[in-house]
TrEMBL record:
This is NAD(P)/FAD-dependent oxidoreductase. Pfam families: NAD_binding_8 (PF13450). It comes from the Bacteria. It comes from Clostridium paridis. The keyword Flavoprotein applies.
Length: 508
């Protein structure tokens, strides 16, 4: 079936990257259509209900939702807002047989109290992190590197060395060697690493601990879903359209120019511009698989490391159970720091428990559990050659869930076990199935030394086909993908001589 309506822009996927692009463009009068295969918008930040408990896919909160945060800034620009509550972090971190507790407001003294022999090194750690962050935040938002001319790139490189020496020396390097040089106590290193995944660049940990240290995590009162829902409201107010439960099968390309999309239900939609918020791999290898122009991009991403997915389990815990105010728990094997991601098994992988903020009328606790296990674990979780999830997959999933739950209960105690009401588990294969994000990755590319800072542009070699979201500049995370939409929209609107940067700056 071919529909006659022609759109200015068709967007494949209603993740925060796709929705934000639609919001920026529809605000300027563009006729926009967003097509989403799921029954709700938001991609990785959707929320859902199970047995009276509300769950978010994984985020515990966002610092960018603070009053002056980037997400708040984008939402303000769209003329919408979400009501938030501050989430002061209280962390309990198990490493080997040790059990540590940290409170946001007293973070540094909690570190010193529990690792008194490392006091001097802890001081240095906090000082170093502060220096890296002040260098990073100086100089305003970066220009996308692919928009820089050679001279600008050189200038940027020299300026970075001169003005951001600490960031360059430490921030962009893998964290583990730096932490090993800083601290003698392996448990302390394990505690620091527990706020991320192994092998991340040092900056990743600086950022995550800074968020705790400054006590600036905010959570939408109505759950994470409130963020995409607010953006959808703005798109609708500006006459943009969102089609849910509709999957794009193919991006239609004629003579190297994107013309529209064909959906699995047979409908075709035509537009001057097509934007894909689907993963870059899915876009070039499935949706636009015949486009020869995309071959260099296909090759360049083929072997690139991606951010690992995880088994994500959603656990209802009885209202009777008292977490003692703890809202983040990490369980680290004593040797986790020596393992590569590919060596993780259910018996040694890091486990995080996020105790979510509850809606006023919810009695029991919602706990989201992340167990970092690779997509490739056990032959892609015992899926068949064609990726089918049969009996073996279900059996393995259930076995791994039990191992993870047992590891948690061993640390948290039998009271906790008795308080478990239900557990719904998902694997990286499920995350991929729901979002088409490659291997279920939820932050785009791996954030290690070889990958961090290498950006893919929004523009592709197929005319009028663009990418948006966690795989393109400036990368993953909710604020990151909203920024990727901003940069893309700036480019698209510039074709009509609309200066989005000016408008955005004037609105702040
Ligand atoms: C456990 C977890 C923890 C996280 N922690 C943080 C954090 O602390 N801070 C932070 O900022 N971020 C965090 N994130 C990451 C953040 O949520 C993601 O980076 C971001 O939401 C990705 O947005 P996106 O727009 O790139 O893509 P996605 O959210 O993947 O959206 C893509 C959308 O496109 C749709 N789609 C794909 N293909 C098609 C098709 N062919 N037809 C129709 N629709 C299609 C999908 O269904 C999906 O809705 C976390 C995520 C998870 C899951």
């Amino acid at each position: 079936m071919t529909l006659d309506i022609k759109y200015d822009v068709i967007i494949v996927g209603a993740g925060m990257g796709g929705l934000s692009t639609a919001a920026f463009l529809s605000k300027e009068g563009k006729k926009v259509l967003v097509i989403e295969k799921h029954d709700k918008p938001g991609g990785f930040i959707t929320s859902f209900q199970r047995k009276g408990c509300r769950f978010d896919i994984g985020l515990e909160g966002l610092m960018e939702l603070s009053e002056n945060g980037d997400i708040t800034g984008f939402l303000n620009y769209f003329g919408v807002s979400v009501e938030t509550v501050k989430r002061t972090e209280k962390l309990r971190i198990f490493t080997g047989d040790k059990d540590y507790t940290f409170n946001s407001p007293t973070l540094k003294s909690d570190f010193i109290k529990q690792f008194p022999l490392e006091e001097e090194a802890i001081d240095k750690f906090f000082d170093l992190n502060e220096k890296i962050l002040s260098e990073m935040y100086s100089g305003g938002a970066p220009k996308p590197p692919y928009e820089m001319r050679l001279f600008e790139k050189l200038k940027f490189g020299i300026e970075s060395m001169l003005k951001r020496p600490t960031l360059m020396k430490y921030g962009m390097k893998n964290a583990y060697p730096i932490l090993k040089k800083t601290f003698k106590d392996r448990d302390l290193i394990n505690v620091i690493i527990s706020k991320g995944i192994c092998n991340m660049v040092y900056l990743g940990y600086v950022y995550r601990w800074d968020v705790v240290n400054r006590d600036i995590v905010y959570y939408p009162i109505s759950g994470m879903q409130a963020i995409p829902d607010a953006v959808v409201k703005n798109i609708n107010d500006n006459y943009g359209q969102i089609l849910l439960n509709t999957e794009v099968k193919e991006i239609l390309i004629e003579n190297g120019v994107a013309k529209g999309v064909e959906c699995t239900n047979g409908s075709c939609y035509y537009g001057d511009i097509v934007v894909s918020n689907s993963s870059v791999h899915y876009t070039v290898n499935k949706l636009a698989k015949d486009a020869q122009e995309l071959e260099p991009l296909r090759k360049s991403i083929e072997k690139r490391e991606i951010y690992p997915g995880a088994m994500i389990n959603f656990m209802g815990v009885s209202r009777e159970y008292d977490f003692g105010g703890v809202n983040y728990i990490a369980i680290m094997d004593k040797d986790t720091i020596d393992l590569d991601f590919d060596d993780y098994t259910p018996y040694n992988c890091p486990i995080w428990l996020i105790v979510s903020e509850k809606p006023k009328d919810q009695l029991d606790h919602s706990v989201t559990i992340l167990a970092y296990l690779p997509y490739k674990y056990h032959n892609n979780w015992d899926t068949g050659i064609d990726g089918t999830r049969g009996e073996e997959y279900r059996k393995l999933k259930s076995e791994v869930e039990t191992i993870i739950t047992n590891r948690i209960c061993k640390k948290m105690g039998e009271d906790f076990r008795k308080s478990i009401l239900f557990c719904v588990s998902s694997t990286p294969v499920s995350s991929e199935r729901y979002t088409y994000s490659t291997e279920g990755a939820f932050m785009g590319w791996m954030m290690n030394e070889g990958n961090y800072g290498k950006f893919i542009p929004q523009e592709t070699k197929v005319n009028n086909l663009y990418l948006v979201g966690q795989w393109v500049f400036p990368g993953g995370g909710v604020a990151g993908v909203m920024a990727s939409a901003y940069y893309l929209s700036k480019k698209i609107l510039a074709l009509d001589n609309i200066d989005l940067e000016k408008k955005y700056k004037e609105s702040i």
